[in-house]
Design brief:
This is Thioredoxin domain-containing protein. Keywords: Cytochrome c-type biogenesis, Disulfide bond, Redox-active center, Signal, Signal-anchor, Transmembrane. This protein is α+β, with helices and mostly antiparallel strands. It has a single domain, classed as Glutaredoxin. The protein contains 4 helices and 9 strands; from the N terminus they run αβββββαβαβββα. The strands form 2 sheets. Strands 1-2-9-8-5-6-7 form a 7-stranded mixed beta sheet, covered by helices on one side. It has a two-stranded antiparallel sheet with strand order 3-4. It is globular, with a radius of gyration of 15 Å.
Length: about 190
């Protein structure tokens, strides 16, 4: 029963959002950046949780299989207007950065069946995989005090070692998304 309460609490906190404010502290070791992008210095990054399951296309996917690549995780729902606003930006940057070792993975949440989410991907040209997480269980796996998803949409960027490096709790333009990824591409 406590797990159900935790899922309900998480879902109540993750209503479709036009943005959010968060801040860093000595405890979290992340810094709130301009434009709603929070970052973590390389020495203070925490490992991302295990994120695996079935995709919208009903294929198995484990984010850990992308270790060695920069992974951009985008939490979205087909019903979410800000998600629709940023979708084509994500799709374009995904295509532009793939050759640079960047892998995008969506986490589709709160869509009670796959059909609307699959239509969303087709409409906005999203050709990277999305984990299907209708009740938000994957979002609950992020460690407390990390840059965890707290709104829909949320975008989290993992470094090549699978550690949480950046987060945005707002819809992203191409420019803001690239500003999250470019410093990680430069890390060797």
């Amino acid at each position: 029963m406590p797990a159900i309460g935790a899922v309900i609490a998480a879902l109540s906190l993750t209503a479709c959002s036009g943005g959010g404010a968060s801040g860093g502290s000595a405890d979290t070791k992340f810094v709130q950046g301009k434009g709603g992008v929070d970052t973590v210095s390389e020495e203070n990054r925490k490992d991302a949780p295990k994120l695996s399951g079935k995709t919208l296309g009903d294929k198995p996917l484990d984010v850990a299989d992308y270790k060695g690549k920069i992974v951009v995780l985008n939490v979205w729902g087909s019903w979410c207007a800000p998600c629709r606003a940023e979708a084509s930006n994500l799709a374009k940057v995904a295509k532009d950065t793939k050759a640079k070792g960047v892998q995008f993975v969506g986490i589709n949440t709160r869509d009670s069946n796959r059909a609307p989410a699959l239509r969303f991907e087709k409409e906005y040209g999203v050709d990277y995989p999305s984990l299907y997480d209708p009740i938000g269980k994957l979002m609950l796996r992020f460690p407390k005090g990390s840059l965890n998803p707290q709104a829909i949409p949320s975008t989290i960027v993992l470094d090549r070692e699978g550690r949480i490096a950046a987060r945005a709790l707002t819809p992203l333009s191409e420019e803001r998304l690239r500003s999250m990824i470019t410093p990680l591409i430069a890390e060797k």
